[in-house]
Design a protein that fits this description.
single chain; mainly alpha; Rossmann fold; five-stranded parallel β-sheet; two-stranded antiparallel ribbon; 19 helices; 7 strands; elongated
């Protein structure tokens, strides 16, 4: 029977479909399905969480299972109600003598009708998604430390960080498939940007990453950090999420293509014994390990091949891996031994401004970790132990630092003192660059930084856009006066 010969029945069938969709919308079925999905994801994440013991996992999975059953029931009665609502217009039309219910039901079961309705549903869903879930725009603020993850990415993350064995296996598979050997990719010694968090390392990373020979990790490399070549093929060129402000709330914008710090994952994988429950030990040249050295070299080479594989020595511009890793501040001696010829850049910030920023971010992430467990897991997995519930100080002078509580701003100034007092012994091994100089004279300061790193400074780059203008606000009123005087006396040594 031709489709348009049953127009009255088609009209009633369309009304029934609209009623079905309307009821589902009214009972918030999509929110319920999302909650059901997240309950399932939570159970899987728990099973793959290496930080939990078997008993903790069992209890957490039981809770997730009960939540899943409850959410499944919620979805069931909503769908049943919507299906029952479909019959209302059909029976009304039959009762009024407009259209026989059998004819309407016959139309509902026709293949051409189902195809047309499905197509219309896809178009409407796509249009709504464009309106309600458009990509983040410049100026939007991230609400998580993992702001560029879609909900489905959490399962992938849980698998990628399920255990050290998984990470090592992914790395070996990446080596095997893409044959990343010592001879394949030309390169020069890496450059390491490091300081205490909030010292200006991200701004310096973003500035230097614009240079044509520089290769860095990017947000897009998550979560398969140990298999970047493989993941780049599987994930494709992901650019759907535009820039947004990162979770720190400091005005810095990020996207999937933004450079980021991920090589702490390698350090945790190769030296897990350094990461104690309440602190992180320092590294010395005695910690030099041949297997670890080769692992790092292969991983750095993969990033240079992935990002700057078109550059060669013949072009006099071989690629260089650039690392931004705050914890490397505890490895200065080892970095010089493990990566001969490397350059180490240490941004240096006025101590009261630096410690105040550390204190502010600690409070920020204490709240984030309490409100969003996945943010806590994400930061733990990538080795960001600077703030919040995860905070583990680097063991420069623990007795001195632990005179204070982390909810006291003096703790963070004492931590600054312990770190940079230690670094006074390494003045000749790194290039220290004051954030104040980057703010007031970025062109001249960046030229000096690049010269120290063995990089050419293109005359066409305006470095002013990478650093805040004006003086870094001081916060003398927050801290003990004697402690602040000690910090500033150390600051003057660099």
């Amino acid at each position: 029977m031709p489709f348009f010969s049953v127009v009255p029945a088609v009209s009633v069938a369309v009304v029934s479909v609209i009623v079905f969709a309307g009821v589902l919308f009214a009972v918030r079925i999509f929110e319920t399905i999302q909650k059901t999905y997240m309950a399932a994801v939570g159970g899987v994440e728990t099973m793959l969480d290496s930080e939990l013991d078997d008993l903790q996992k069992e209890k957490a999975v039981q809770r997730a299972g009960l939540q899943l059953i409850g959410q499944a029931f919620q979805a069931f009665w909503r769908i049943a109600l919507a299906l029952a609502a479909v019959l209302v217009p059909i029976y009304i039309a039959d009762w009024l003598g407009w259209v026989d219910q059998g004819q309407t039901l016959s139309v509902l079961l026709r293949v051409d009708f189902i195809v047309l309705v499905s197509l219309a549903a896809v178009i409407v869903t796509w249009a709504l998604s464009r309106v309600r879930s458009a990509p983040a725009k410049v100026g939007d603020k991230a609400t998580s430390a993992a702001p560029l993850y879609a909900s489905g990415d959490r399962l992938v993350h849980a698998f990628a960080f399920a255990s050290p064995w998984v990470q090592r296996s992914l790395a070996r598979f990446d080596d095997l498939v893409f044959k990343t050997t010592d001879r394949e990719t030309a390169g020069r010694p890496p450059i390491f940007i490091t300081s205490l968090a909030r010292g200006g390392t991200t701004a310096l990373l973003n500035a230097m990453s614009t240079l044509p020979e520089i290769a860095t990790h990017r947000y897009a490399d998550m979560p398969f950090v140990t298999a970047p070549m493989l993941w780049s093929r599987l994930a494709g060129d992901r650019k759907s999420i535009e820039e947004r402000e990162r979770a720190h709330g400091d005005g810095l914008k990020i996207s999937l293509q933004s450079p980021e710090a991920f090589d702490e994952v390698f350090w945790m994988l190769m030296a897990p014994e350094k990461y104690k429950a309440d602190h992180i030990e320092l590294w010395t040249p005695k910690d030099l390990n041949t297997d670890a050295q080769l692992f790092f070299e292969r991983q750095f080479r993969k990033i240079t091949k992935l990002r700057r594989g078109d550059l060669t020595e013949a072009a006099n511009m071989a690629p260089r891996y650039l690392s931004k890793n705050n914890a490397n501040i505890a490895r200065i001696d080892l970095l010089k031994a493990q990566f001969p010829g490397c350059q180490i850049l240490v941004p240096l910030r006025e101590p009261s401004a630096h410690a105040a920023s550390l204190f502010r971010q600690h409070k920020n992430f204490v709240l984030q970790h309490a409100e969003d467990p996945f943010t806590r897991r994400y930061m733990r997995d990538i080795g960001h132990f600077e703030f919040g519930d995860l905070h583990r100080p680097l063991a420069f002078d623990l007795d001195f630092v632990r005179q204070y509580s982390t909810d006291d701003p003096n703790y963070w100034l004492a931590y600054w003192i312990s770190c940079f007092d230690h670094l006074t012994q390494h003045v000749e091994k790194a290039t220290f660059v004051r954030q104040a100089d980057l703010r007031t004279s970025p062109q001249e300061t960046m030229e000096q930084v690049l010269n120290a790193a063995g990089l050419a400074s293109p005359q066409t780059i305006d470095w002013r856009g990478h650093f805040r203008d004006g003086e870094d606000p001081r916060h003398d009123d927050l801290f003990d006066r004697a402690l602040l005087e000690r910090a500033r006396s150390i600051y003057q040594l660099f």
